[in-house]
Amino acid sequence: EAVRIMEAPEPSDDVLEEAGIDRAAALALVYDDDERNIRAALTARRLNPRLRLVIRLYNRKLGQHLEELLDQAAAVAMPGIDPGLLDASTTVLSDADTAAPALAATALTGSSKIIQAEGLLLRAAERPPPRPGEHADPGLCTLALLSSTTNDPAGAEGSDSSGDEAPQLLPDERAVADATGRGTVVLEAISRADPARPATRMGGRGAPLAQIFSRRLRWSALGFALAAVALVIASLLTTEDTALHSAYLTVLDLLGMNDPAEGASPARQIIQILSGIAGLLLLPLLIAAVLEAFGTLRTASSLRRPPRGLGGHVVLLGLGKIGTRVLVRLRELDIPVVVVEEDPEARGIPLARSLHVPTVIGDVTQEGVLEAAKIYRARALLAL
Question: What is the 3-state secondary structure (H, E, C) of 156-175?
Fold first, then answer.
């Protein structure tokens, strides 16, 4: 069917009526002018309350209010409308909203040919015929059975319109189960490249123990605790004291609060000396813990630096409007990100701080900035 093209300076009532707005199923408004899009959307909703509207709007907060207003207008014009249909009657998107999913998918998979649905990024992936003894990854569902088979990888046995192994779109579960050894096109969700590796927690509220105290300090505290337990066990085995009394004496010896064990058995005296030596290590450990905790709390509101050993992450250059939306999208997918931003007052800096995303402040053209972002171990670079 031929595409009809109309030329008009403004989407007025007469222009929309001439375009058949009263019979249309949907209307997409993509003018660069927000005011023009708003006026056209209100006019179209008045002329056709059942019309599905997709509106481009730069101001996201204004877009949220406009979406609520248009949904309310549709609900008033059509009492008893299904809530699902009402929710889908109006969609307001900004440039960043439309660009962020494709940019995030490109960084993860190298392709922008994706579908966004229910907060997921989906793509169609071709699976070759499995070899004997192998099982092909079924993905989320099978979209098509291909003509290629294990015995005929080129698909010469079945063409698009003939043959026993012709391609089949949207096969049911029985057809998929019977079609062993055939190539398939499956729907899969885009996620991190290495699903076996646990996700790195880079956001969220609160400060877990691992973020407050360094690994070296945690290992030192564990070593001291094990030494104290060993001293309690040694005291229990070499004396006739109860477990509770042995632990009590060991704690006093560690803190230097116990009297010298004069007249006691040699084993008790040796344990007291060892406890005193171990107790000397307690004070530096407590001081280090206090200093590290104070430093962590002092820098809790500052930007996080890229941690050592970070790899497989995405380096994001720029935290403008689109860069901020891409950052949110990548974090929703649990993808580790390192941000590089020249302006410390950029609009996305507060978001990066709240998500605890590692951030490097500096000009990307200067030497050492990309190195600080661990670019040599990154999986992708997004320059926005």
Answer: CCCCCCCCCCCCEECCCHHH
